[in-house]
Design goal:
single chain, alpha+beta, Protein Transport Mog1p, Chain A, 3 domains, 7 strands
């Protein structure tokens, strides 16, 4: 499963949540642990990628007009002069980010976009490996796991058990990818665990991508209006076989 510290201490270190002694101890650990050093590099690259100017878009004039029309007249006595326009600009920016933020990341399936999202799903998979985080509903019965998601997400994830094909269903959980709640299905593969993240996609089909980061394999594909990301420390061929099973 990899170094325990890569799933527990690493994120606290990156977020400056460790005290001086804890930071010094982890930095000594980094000198002896290539896996944690690689994971740290990946997280720092992920943070840098959020500065990509392609992720930021100026709101069109039509959006500003729409916000103004829905808010009604602005009273100068309550919000005088330029202050009113500054608040309106903030409101327009929030609306615009909510509308395009998720779409901008989930539709960027080039090399850079896949690498960015892969880092997020690997991070979510690592969090799930901590004690008590793997499943919210523990069951090998797809008829138990699937209805558990009702009312918890605004879509119906395709829950299927592939025990006969060597991928037994373990359960499911809620997770978060890029600020959105997604369904996470958990499968076994020999002694390995696989997280399959699912959320609605704007495209019915997709050619898919795969790769490896931080010692973990990932495979991404789209099918029947859903986007799938499978992550594990098992072989990439296992993930591709699971993808074929989902796509039948």
């Amino acid at each position: 499963m990899g170094c325990d510290r890569s799933a527990s201490v690493l994120h606290a270190y990156v977020d400056d949540e460790l005290d001086a002694a804890g930071s010094a101890e982890f930095e000594r650990h980094l000198e002896q642990c290539p896996e944690c050093a690689e994971a740290l590099q990946g997280l720092r690259a992920l943070r840098s990628s959020f500065a990509d100017p392609e992720l930021y878009h100026k709101g069109p004039e039509s959006l500003q007009k729409k916000v103004l029309s829905e808010m009604g007249p602005v009273r100068n006595s309550a919000m005088p002069g330029s202050t009113a326009w500054r608040w309106l600009a903030v409101a327009a920016g929030v609306v615009l980010l909510a509308a395009i933020g998720w779409q901008a990341v989930s539709t960027r399936h080039g090399a850079d976009g896949s690498s960015l999202l892969a880092a997020e799903v690997i991070d979510a998979h690592l969090r799930s490996l901590q004690p008590g985080h793997l499943t919210d509903v523990l069951s090998s019965d797809q008829h138990t796991v699937k209805p558990w998601f009702d009312g918890k997400v605004d879509f119906a994830p395709p829950v299927r058990d592939f025990s006969e094909q060597g991928f037994p269903l373990q359960g499911g959980r809620l997770d978060a990818i890029h600020g959105r709640t997604v369904a996470a299905l958990v499968y076994g593969r020999r002694k390995h665990l696989i997280s399959v993240f699912v959320w609605p996609s704007g495209n019915d089909q997709g050619s898919g991508h795969s790769g490896s980061q931080q010692g973990y394999q990932w495979s991404e594909w789209r099918n029947e209006g859903m986007e799938f990301w499978a992550v594990s420390d098992t072989s990439l061929s296992d993930l591709e076989e699971l993808q074929r099973l989902f796509s039948k």
